[in-house]
Amino acid sequence: MTQRPSQGEAPLAIELRGISKAFGPVQANKDISIQVKRGTIHGIIGENGAGKSTLMSILYGFYKADAGEIYIGGRPTPIPDSQAAIDAGIGMVFQHFKLVQPFTVLENVILGAEDGKLLKPSLAKARKLLTDLAREYELDVDPDAVVEDLNVGLQQRVEILKALYREADILILDEPTGVLTPAEADHLFRILKGLRDQGKTIILITHKLREIMEITDTVSVMRRGEMTATVKTAETSPEQLAELMVGRKVLLRVDKTPAQPKETVLEVRGLRVIDDQGVERLRGIDLDIRAGEVLGIAGVSGNGQSELLEVLGGYRKAEGTIRMNGQEIALTGSASDARMRRMQGIAHVPEDRQREGLIMEFRAWENVGFGYHREERFGSGLFMDNTALRTDCEGKMARFDVRPPDPNLAAKSFSGGNQQKIVLAREIERDPDLLLIGQPTRGVDIGAIEFIHKQVVALRDKGKAILLVSVELDEIMALSDRIAVMFDGRIMGERLPSETDANELGLLMAGMTGKPVAAE
Amino acid sequence: MDYAGLIQILDSALRLSTPLLFACLAGLFSERAGVFDIGLEGKILASAFLSAAMAAYTGNVWLGMFAGILASLMLATIHGMASITFRGNQLISGVAINFLASGLTVVIGEAWFGLGGRTPQLEGAARFGELTLPFADAIRGIPFIGPIYADLLSGHSILVYVALLCVPLTWWILSRTRFGLRLRAVGENPAAVDTAGVSVVGLRFAAVMICGLLCGLAGAYLATALSAGFVKEMSAGRGFIALAALIFAKWRPWHALGATFLFGLLEALGNRFQSLELLGITIPTQFMQALPYILTVVILAGFVGRAIPPRAGGEPYVKER
Amino acid sequence: MTDALPKWADILLIPLINLILALVVSGLVVALIGKDPFEALSILVTGAVGSAYGWGYTLFYATNFIFTGLGVAVAFHARLFNIGGEGQAALGGLGCALVLLYLPLPHWSLAIIAASLGAALFGAAWAAIPAYLQAKRGSHIVITTIMFNFIASALMVYLLSRVLIVPGAGGSPETARFVESVHLPNAYDVLPWMGFSRSTPLNVSFLLAIAACVFVWVLIWRTRLGYEIRAFGQSEPAALYGGISSVRIIMIAMLISGALIGLMAINSVMGEAERLVIDPVQGAGFVGIAVALMGRSHPVGVFLAALLFGALYQGGGELTFEMNGMTREIILVIQALVILFTGALDNMVRAPVERAFLSARKRPRAPLPTNPVEPGGHSDEKKVEP
């Protein structure tokens, strides 16, 4: 935890007064006022959809506020577009990087901030400046490297360099650690502290309490579009912040009894995946999952977890063998594989429900049959039975508390949590032997998170096997009976939750082998 | 075929590839900026009509050319409005523009000239004349090199040379200037350009307008240099062939020169050999005429190498959080 | 958010506004070339629906456009843009003609079945190659289908001028006339009291077109295949997850699309010309795009849009005769503008209409409730509209 000397008299870098923003009927920001002191790291925390990103987008000129004023360095500063934000000394590092992949680092840095109409002098000047910045802030990156060849940690540095090249005094980072290993996150925090000590102001948007406690000086909490509190980090606790975020006491732990694992349901041996670009994404995976247990796969995103789920779900080609209930299953990745998986008792809640799990334009009742639409219960012969689908949907909505319980609404009209409940209901009620579930609570509000976690545990207690993939270490720790850590297409090790901690898992996630595999 | 015959075919190929080259570079600017343009065809047609009409009316080919460019720019503006401002479907917009050009050229042509959609035959100063390069006559006598210079390179209308000059110019703009950097960036990731404080709309409009300008030149060349007047549907799929050439060229200017020359050569061969005897089988004229279209399909099928298009191509830019 | 509009506004009001915009702009064009747009409109309307003669042609053209519109619409549902209707319909004509020329068919009822199979098969076959290239090699189907239009036109010229031409019959590039026994009953034969002339082109294929509408409706909204086509069209990654084969859907959707478009030949080749001529399609393949867009890819919408375009084509033909210096290509202009306004500039029309509806609805509604979050509550950005 960092503590800064008292800064009561420090001038304000940014002040927002009464900012409001509505999207149609949705009030994303409601009368928000906030003061950020110069030379501090100010955290903004809130759950998904609390309005954090909207607020920052207003500050960066992406959206125009309906009401309210922005003061930069004490002066009222309207920010109609990004250029105005840049001119006001604001730099932004987005959650999804805004880099041109086939360009070099240098080209990315000067884009939009070139000196003159020809590139040559701009590039020469940027090269010199970049070298200086790298030395000053531990921001080393090869200026001539092509961005798409860089790992995410380095790409993030390019984003920070872009902001510094534009002489930003205020740096906003939106969920910066989501794609980083713990080690990379530590490095980032060192950079941020260095920047603060040079007098820069940093705003860190995150939903991770640990990060707030670790690095910020002040923290503001947002809930449902409103700013509920701003407190000194040193004077608060994670529990208090969590309560402020949600508005009531929440259980951060999941209640569950010890697992009663039975026979092996899924057996994976020597699984390899080579993608279209010829990159090896899985480099020999061995896994066993038994009935009545949750196997959690931890890891920073992009280390092969998605590919593993896709292979198990039947829509990615792979080499190796997989046995489901003792039967070897096909790994051709053709559409028939994906259909067969469902018949073989494998259900799949995919990582990205809006891209894969649901057809967003389809109504809820059409979605409850998706993937199972050829089954007898949803029709006969060539035809679909839309009445059966509607009835099924009504039942699922009641049992899974989907709101509003209207089968005729399009999937896109539901909130993230309710969309996830529709997918979950579809997959769980098919009564699978194995449930694959990826990022079960991404973009889901805390209320629904509890519900979803309970469903997963209940399914396990019914004696089903569950493979859980999540980038949230807390979620893995809370739900899993065994934890496997993936790094660079390999399983780095397996641990029992009771015999490990976040530090050890963090090391494994960064590709550093720890102790030998824990005995069961 | 003797050497003179070969030179003659290459000469004809150069003429025929010129409108394709203009159109291909036009598509290059638009697509590198992330805007698909199926409507090259319509812009060429509109420009061909208006340039011929204006040239016929004033007797001045230059005025004709500017009128043609203006027609093409107007259609480009519609495409820009549809695909950039209103974030509509770029393919549908292009298709609509093609039909619009097909319809308007005939409706207006018939109202103005009453010749069933044709413009009057262009003569004299209403057409682009042939330029003789310096020393062409002096060098012609030199064996081998002489005919290449005097008969192949010399003796074209000025627009042929303009088209050829556009190739290095395009390369230079894209790779060496600020505008080019931003243009390429907006075709790959418009969000990067937007967050850098540069207007995505402005850049894309600029690209679409350059595309309109170049299509205008293609159309003007077609009606006032290659032919002597406008005839109904005279673009004959050149806009689409240019798009195929663009894919074949992997969106690069120098490659575009080669790809369009290949199509020009094919057309020249088709014109020269109305029916061809190959291994005792007579290949019908219609096959020779369809050859450029067939080759286009073959190229698109990727039998001659795959290419990665600009990543943000065809997608309207919507800001996201 | 499409939910901002009531359904009737989405399927009726917006297309109507689009059509009016297209007509207004075309009227400006007419005025620009020094003619009276109101006179043109009145000739157009009278010519199209002012007489049994006009209705005969209007419905005849509409029949063509229903087939091509349905074909384009089925492809649209799979998010495929089939602009190869010209070629597919031409090949459909070839298939139809070959059946009628070379199979001994005693009666028109038998002949229409055989010819339909021939037309559908050839139309589908011409769509198959672009479909295969799209499915397997990712070749842009828009450009390949256009190229296949050009190739089809060359092929037709070759076949009709070299192969199928009747020797010694004046040398015009067309096949022999079909035998009298396969003559389709036309509106004069079936409905003599309606005042259709003996030579009216409207024939029983119109009923086949209506049957095709029903078929497409059942296919898209009631079958498992239709469900898969729509799912694939909405989201390719989801289709992959759901075990829907992209190759299969692209192929099937395009084959059905090509077959429907090919069926147009039953109306134009078998029903009207009664022989195969050099361009049996006359732009109907392209009209199908406007019809499908305007009809929102729904069979009922396609039917209505086809009627409208049928009237425009018939009325446009009359314009050529009745107004000096006016050509039927003005219809092409209207068609282009309809495609432009409905397909590409949709947001231009939609956004203000949505805003109007939203503000009309806002007044009676209470402000958003601010009760605390509960399980199942939704504090996401994507709120449900009550």
From TrEMBL, chain A:
PROSITE patterns: ABC_TRANSPORTER_1, ABC_TRANSPORTER_2. The keyword tRNA-binding does not apply. Keywords: ATP-binding, Cell membrane, Membrane, Nucleotide-binding, Repeat, Sugar transport, Translocase, Transport. It is a peripheral membrane protein. It is found in: Cell membrane. Gene3D superfamilies: P-loop containing nucleotide triphosphate hydrolases (3.40.50.300). InterPro entries: AAA+_ATPase (IPR003593), ABC_carbohydrate_import_ATPase (IPR050107), ABC_transporter-like_ATP-bd (IPR003439), ABC_transporter-like_CS (IPR017871), P-loop_NTPase (IPR027417). One of its GO terms (cellular component) is plasma membrane. Residues 14-249, 266-513 form the ABC transporter domain. GO terms for molecular function: ATP binding; ATP hydrolysis activity. Belongs to the ABC transporter superfamily. This is Simple sugar transport system ATP-binding protein.
TrEMBL record, chain B:
The keyword Transmembrane helix applies. Its main location: membrane. It comes from the Bacteria. It is a multi-pass membrane protein. The chain crosses the membrane at residues 12-30, 65-84, 91-113, 153-174, 205-231, 290-308. Keywords: Cell membrane, Membrane, Sugar transport, Transmembrane, Transmembrane helix, Transport. GO terms for cellular component: plasma membrane. It is found in: Cell membrane. One of its GO terms (molecular function) is transmembrane transporter activity. InterPro entries: ABC_transp_permease (IPR001851). This is Simple sugar transport system permease protein.
From TrEMBL, chain C:
Residues 377-386 have a biased composition (Basic and acidic residues). It is found in: Cell membrane. The chain crosses the membrane at residues 12-34, 54-76, 88-105, 111-129, 141-160, 202-220, 240-266, 330-349. It comes from Jannaschia seohaensis. This is Simple sugar transport system permease protein. Keywords: Cell membrane, Membrane, Sugar transport, Transmembrane, Transmembrane helix, Transport. CDD domains: TM_PBP1_transp_TpRbsC_like. Its main location: membrane. Pfam families: BPD_transp_2. The lineage of its organism: Bacteria, Pseudomonadati, Pseudomonadota, Alphaproteobacteria, Rhodobacterales. GO terms for molecular function: transmembrane transporter activity. Residues 364-386 are annotated as: Disordered. It comes from the Bacteria. It is a multi-pass membrane protein. One of its GO terms (cellular component) is plasma membrane.
